[in-house]
């Protein structure tokens, strides 16, 4: 078999995966598109390993490593998606842009800052930093106060 056929199939799979990552808004579909891209790389590795007749089969060994990394990526990615769904009740990427927790309805952006007063024109409240009172050291029990005063 000629190496062009697997290379074309791999390029098509990779292109579909890139389109899925760029165009999809659902997190699960983006993870599936990344897996499609990794499988396209695996197909290239095996095809060129067979075409070059490598005695060590390094393309196939690399493919095994990519499969292991992909499995770990799926496990971690799905754990993150489940945690996001529990906290935000959505897996839509457009609604997950903000890192802060929302206080309104599930999936809605957080409200604007409520710290600004009615008469302020800048839109943000400026507060002075608070300082704690200085800490005075206390002598240990049984210490001579005249020695520590020097």
UniProtKB/TrEMBL annotation:
Region spans: Disordered: 96-150
UniProt feature, compositional bias: Low complexity: 113-130
Reactions that this protein is recorded to catalyse: a quinone + NADH + 5 H(+)(in) = a quinol + NAD(+) + 4 H(+)(out)
Cell compartments where the protein resides: Cell membrane; Membrane
Entry EC no(s): 7.1.1.-
GO cellular component: NADH dehydrogenase complex; plasma membrane
Transmembrane segments: 6-22, 29-52, 64-85
Keywords: Cell membrane, Membrane, NAD, Quinone, Translocase, Transmembrane, Transmembrane helix, Transport
Keyword match Oxidoreductase: no
GO terms, molecular function: NADH dehydrogenase (quinone) (non-electrogenic) activity; quinone binding
Taxonomic superkingdom: Bacteria
Gene3D superfamilies linked: 1.10.287.3510
UniProt enzyme class: translocase
Bilayer topology annotation: Multi-pass membrane protein
GO BP of this protein: ATP synthesis coupled electron transport
PANTHER family: NADH-UBIQUINONE OXIDOREDUCTASE CHAIN 4L, NADH-UBIQUINONE OXIDOREDUCTASE SUBUNIT ND4L
Oligomeric and partner information: NDH-1 is composed of 14 different subunits. Subunits NuoA, H, J, K, L, M, N constitute the membrane sector of the complex.
Family label: Belongs to the complex I subunit 4L family.
Name of this protein: NADH-quinone oxidoreductase subunit K
Organism: Streptosporangium becharense
Source lineage: Bacteria, Bacillati, Actinomycetota, Actinomycetes, Streptosporangiales
